[in-house]
Amino acid sequence: MILDAYISLFRSYAKDFNAQAPEWLVQAREASLQYLLRHQDLSEADAYATDFGLNPKRIRPQGDPSQLFTCEIPGITSYNFLVLNDSCFAQPKQQLPEGVVVCALSDAFVRYPELVARYWGKAKTENANWHFNQLFAQDGLFVYLPKGVTLDRPIQLVNLMYDNQPRMAVSHNLIIVEDDAQAQVLVCDHAYGESPCLSNRYTEVFVGRNARYEHYKLESTHREMTNVSALTLCLQDGAEVLTNNITLHGGRTANDVRAALMGEGARLSVNGLALGDHDQSIRNHTCITHQVAGSVSTELFKYLLDGQSQGEFFGLVKVEEGADRTTALQTNRNLCLSADARMQSQPQLEIYADDVQCNHGSATGQLDENALFYMQTRGISEKEARFLLMSAFAYEVLDNVGISAVKDRLRWMIERRLRGEKYNCATCSMCK
Amino acid sequence: MLLEIKDLHAEIEGKEILRGINLSIGEGEVHAIMGPNGSGKSTLSAVLAGHKAYRVTSGEVWFKGQNLLEMAPEERSRAGLFLSFQYPIEIPGVSMVNFMRAAVNEHRKYKELPALSAGEFLKLMREKKEIVQLDSNLTNRSVNEGFSGGEKKRNEIFQMAMLEPSLSILDETDSGLDIDALRIVSEGVNKLKRPDNSTIVITHYQRLLDYIVPDVVHVLYKGRIVRTAGRELVAELEEKGYDWIKRELGE
After folding, report:
1. Could B110 and A379 be called an inter-chain contact, meaning their C-beta atoms sit closer than 8 Å?
2. DSSP assignment string, B127-159
3. Which SS3 state, helix, strand or coil, does residue A354 take?
4. Which of A228, A177, A175, A201 is nearest to A47 (CA)?
5. Which of A371, A381, A388 sits opposite B89 (nearest CB)?
6. A168 phi, psi to nearest 5 deg
7. Percent of chain B with pLDDT over 90
């Protein structure tokens, strides 16, 4: 079985993997081992067949990790954190507002054991991704915003794969936003090197009453990268959450977004944009559960697929019994730019309540030939006309980005990407 | 000659639509092309603009001494050809401003002129919008999206004003226009008239030609020009319909 090698690796190094883990986690990992022995419901399972190296002893890289990578989005000031493969480092000398905690999860195990224990796994979905992550994740980002606090600037987390050997990185982020608090998190996935690598990253987010939370994830990695990520969200009464997953460059990407609208009047907007070429594979799976009456969710996912790239969108919206007056709108639009690009779209609605307004729409097609011709008859070259149509298609998703510096940067990156020009993230020369 | 069409044959999906068109248009001339439904009027304009669904099987088209049929649609536009669409296309997400700026700057590049600054461009837009009384809000929207039929046609003439073509083909610009809009649109076309630019007006009806007065009138029927005369032909067609021409052709 695919995971056997990893399970025996864990057993051999259990002491190291558990070195910083609290007792309840050590026990939970035992259950995860049992689960993985019985189940194989793992995303991108065959990618695990590569003999990836893990880092049980958490050997730190040489030098100052914060100097390895500086992502400079013009005009943004943020609290910066780096997860280098599997270990979290804070940019030095950052003064956080009173009561706010943003630190490495490995530190939080020691400094905030009760908070971690109270929330860990409470937003999970029982599957192999979760258990694999629970077994191997030793670090990640921990965020705690107490009641009523608005974070004055976004938190930026850079997940960087950095090795010249086949490498796997597992990390876990735990984000707690208490009632009436507000936070924005920007996650940037990057990769350095040319060897195959795999990351399994799990993010649990708890959003309290009337709290607001925005989560952006941008992937710009390389073709040897398999990037498996899960984002699970719990929304209490009146909570407002916006998520946006932008996939620009990568090899195999599997994003899973699962949200439970547990409180009345909760509002959720889940979005994604995927630009695929070569033999890139990009999956976005979403599962939104409306558990109580009067909550709203909207979804917009768009794919632009070129080359032999493959896209997949599975979106489930579940309206549970009693969740009356739910509004749920799901949209998936895709453009296949080449004859070999493939898109699979599966919208699903399950409704067990009354008086709901639910809608889903999915369409996959090519660039509008009539629009191209119309623009050409005005003197615009076919190439430029294609660019205008593609960027118009893509930019719609950026309407759902609430940090203007990030939105501007994404427009810039998408424009370069669609024009086939090289670009990198400011001072970083790592991305292909 | 500005435009010279010699024995032009064209087909779509294997069906021949144009069966030997001959037409010469000089500088400063206004030609009307009339004819019953299905005679090939819109096909002629699509072929001249370079629509790739149509295949030219034989014949030649010369525009300002250049072989038009060898040129891409955008090259034809930059060389001075303009087609006002019968059914203008909606382009969601592409703003009128970005669309027009891309077009104007491509034309300027062709003429080896520097691109317009944002300020210069907006000033030009304001001036040209006046010509067809185009609502300012429309240029802030996506191209033709949500425009009424009349607004779309005004937008075509606005684009014509922006690009200053030497030959404009107005493909049924009168269709879908009420009488006020018709007057505004045709007055716009007349304001853009210069001694060196020419117009082909394709229409079913006399009413547009009351405003845009042709020098020459052609009747297209079954893919051929079967009659060419002065503007008096318009009134004759209006009175008698196309049947007398069909009869004269022995049908």
Report:
1. yes
2. HHHHHTT--GGGGGSEETTT--HHHHHHHHHHH
3. coil
4. A228
5. A371
6. -115, 140
7. 81
Q: Show me where the domains of chain A are located.
A: 4-369
| Nearest of B179, B202, B157, B159 to residue B48 by alpha carbon | B202
- Over range B74-103, report the average pLDDT: 96
The larger pLDDT score, comparing residue A67 to residue B216, is at B216
Q: Read off the pLDDT band of A423 (50, 70, 90).
A: low
Q: Do B50 and A395 touch (CB under 8 A)?
A: no
Cβ–Cβ < 8 Å for A353, A374: no
How many domains is chain B partitioned into structurally?
A: 1
Count the Cβ atoms, other than its own, within 10 Å of residue B122.
14
In B139-241, where does DSSP find H-type helix?
149-163, 179-191, 207-211, 232-240
Closest CA to A204 of A272, A271, A325, A115: A115
Which residues of chain B neighbour A380 with C-beta distances below 8 Å?
74, 99, 102-103, 106
Contacting residues of B for A302, CB less than 8 Å apart: none
The per-residue pLDDT for range A149-160, each reduced to its tens digit, is 999 999 999 999
**Quick check: A432 pLDDT over 50?**
no
- Residue A270, H or E segment: strand A267-276
Look up the domain containing B162 and give its range: 3-248
In this predicted structure, the answer to whether residue B45 has a pLDDT above a threshold of 80 is: yes
What separation in angstroms does the CA of A22 have from each of A113, A237, A274, A362?
Answer: 8, 31, 38, 45
* Interface contacts (A, B; CB < 8 Å): 78
Chain A closest-CA separation from residue B99 CA (Å): 8
Kindly report the nearest CA distance between residue B68 and chain A, in angstroms: 13
- Phi-psi group of B35: left, alpha or beta (phi > 0 → left; psi -120 to 50 → alpha; rest → beta): left
A382 and B CB contact within 8 Å: yes
Q: Side chain identity at A426, as an amino acid letter? A: A
* Percent with pLDDT over 70 in chain A: 97
User: What rounded mean pLDDT belongs to chain A?
Assistant: 93
Q: What is the mean pLDDT of chain B?
A: 94
Q: Give residue B161's Cα distance to chain centre.
A: 13
Give this prediction's pTM: 0.91
What ipTM score was computed for the predicted complex, to two decimals? 0.97
Residues of B in contact with A378 (CB under 8 A): 74, 77, 99-100, 103, 159, 163
**Cβ distance of B91 and A375 shorter than 8 Å:** yes
Q: Are A217 and A245 in contact (CB under 8 A)?
A: yes
Which of these, B134, B247, B241, lies nearest to B184 by C-alpha position? B134
Residue B140: which CATH number?
3.40.50.300
pLDDT per residue as tens digits for the range A278-318: 999 999 999 999 999 999 999 999 999 999 999 999 999 99
**Confidence bin at A424 (pLDDT 50/70/90):** low
CA gap B137, B148 in Å, rounded: 13
Please state which of the ranges A77-91, A256-270, B55-69 shows the lowest mean pLDDT: A77-91
Q: Is the pLDDT of residue A49 over 50?
A: yes
User: Distance between CA atoms of A164 and B211, rounded to whole angstroms?
Assistant: 75
Local structure of A155: helix, strand or coil: strand
